[in-house]
Write a structure and sequence with these properties.
The chain has 162 residues and is an alpha+beta fold. The chain contains six helices and eight strands, in the order ββαββααββαββαα.
């Protein structure tokens, strides 16, 4: 099971992607998603959004889910769902990559990930703290997500904190 975050990652920053598709994170965000070797996981989240995770935290999440799936396969409970298992495998194979933060705060967005994000070189992104990870958003996708989520903020906050 995942351990709670040491500190909640919050905040919102606008940054520009450089001409080599590198992005400089705010220092407090970079330190929240990297280990002592500078390793972090970059993951595809939703259209126009990538996320950054501490490698160990990401691995715990993946291992927990895969161990449950392995047990279901072992006990024959997935026999009628092989198409879905294959679909999950394809998504797992392309969803995340280990990246190293240069100078502890600059990340190079790999080709398949920048296509998924949909931001051209030199384009702006929004870097958002999402409590347990850092998200990188295409600005229009971020605004659309905010518009969808903000009306339910109070109810969500109360249900999670109450």
């Amino acid at each position: 099971m995942s351990t709670p975050p040491e500190a909640f990652i919050t905040g919102e920053f606008r940054r520009a992607m450089d001409d080599r598709f590198r992005l400089t994170l705010p220092a407090e965000f970079a330190s929240s998603v990297t280990d002592s070797a500078g390793q972090t996981i970059l993951a595809k989240e939703r259209d126009g959004c990538l996320s950054l995770w501490k490698a160990a935290d990401w691995q715990v999440r993946v291992d927990d889910g895969l161990s449950l799936l392995r047990e279901k396969i072992r006990t024959g409970r997935m026999e009628q769902r092989w198409t879905e298992v294959q679909r999950l495998g394809r998504l797992l194979s392309t969803r995340s990559a280990e990246v190293k933060l240069a100078n502890r705060s600059r990340v190079l967005i790999p080709e398949g990930f920048r296509e998924f994000l949909g931001v051209d070189k030199g384009g702006d992104v929004m870097i958002v703290g999402a409590v347990v990870c850092v998200e990188i958003w295409r600005p229009d996708a971020w605004l659309e997500q905010l518009r969808a989520d903000m009306p339910g903020f109070g109810e969500l906050f109360n249900s999670l904190s109450g």
